[in-house]
Structure prediction request, 160 residues.
Amino acid sequence: MKFIIEEIQQTDDQAICQIIKDVGVEYGAIGEGFGPSDDEVLTMSKFYNKRSKSMYFVAKIDDVVVGGCGIAPFNDSYEVCELKKLFLLPDSRGLGIGRKLTEKCLDFAQSQDFKSCYLDTLQVMNSAILLYESIGFQHLDKPLAGSEHGGCDVWMLKHL
Prediction:
């Protein structure tokens, strides 16, 4: 199945918000301490487009948003960025979209001169963890200081 990846636009906000919230429910990432509850989810384009050294990409099949992934400075760091909110609709998984979104984000991070990329996720998101490992993310014993997602139980870092 053919898909495209492009920078988020305001017209994508409602669709990606719903995807993030629905997939959050699917994996039990509900409430405080989980990405789907972050304020930015309501207007992703506004959050990423106004923030320096940040970018959010959406994936589309037949012009319909099926997922997305972003990159932003971790705690306003100029050296560490965070891979944020990689969420895909169930029917769009297994097509290489998650890998392509992640690679696009990491390419952007390198272009912004970040030295490493952090992420946090949930142990139940097995396929995402396998993807991150295959791209070179290493497991950490604990979250980086300042991580805002206390509900997550997997923390990873990749040197860029």
